[in-house]
Amino acid sequence: MSVTDAGKRIMLGRKLRSAQLGETLLSKRIALPVFASDPLSSVAYSPDEIFIMLSIAGLTAYSYSWKIGLVIAVVMLAVIASYRQNVQAYQSGGGDYEVASTNLGPRFGLGVASALMVDYILTVAVSISSAAQYAATVVPAVQGHQASLAAGATVFLMAMNLRGVRESGTAFAVPAYAFMVAIVGMALVGFVRYWLGDLPLADTAQLQILPEEGFVDEFGGAAAAFLLLRAFASGCATLTGVEAISNGVPAFRAPKGRNAATTLAVLGALAVTMALSIITLANVIDVRVAEDPAIQLVRPNGDPVGSGFHQDPVVTQIAASVFNGFDLGFYLVAAATGVILVLAANTAFNGFPVLGSILAHDDYMPRLLRTRGDRLAYSNGILALAALAIALIWAFDAEVTRLIQLYIVGVFVSFTISQTGMVRHWTRHLRTEIDPAQRRRMIRSRLINAFGLSVTGSVLVVVLLTKFTEGAWISILAMGLLYLLMRGINTHYQRVEAELEADPGDHGLPSRVHAIVLVSRLHKPAIRALSYARASRANVTEALTVDVDPEATQRLLTDWNASDIPVPLRILSSPYRETIRPIVAYIRSIRRESPRDVITVYIPEYVVGHWWERLLHNQTALRLKARLLFTPGLMVTSVPYQLQSSKIAARRAEQMQSAPGDLRRGHLPGGRSGAPNMSDADSGRP
Question: Is domain 511-642 annotated with CATH 3.40.50?
Answer without folding.
Answer: yes
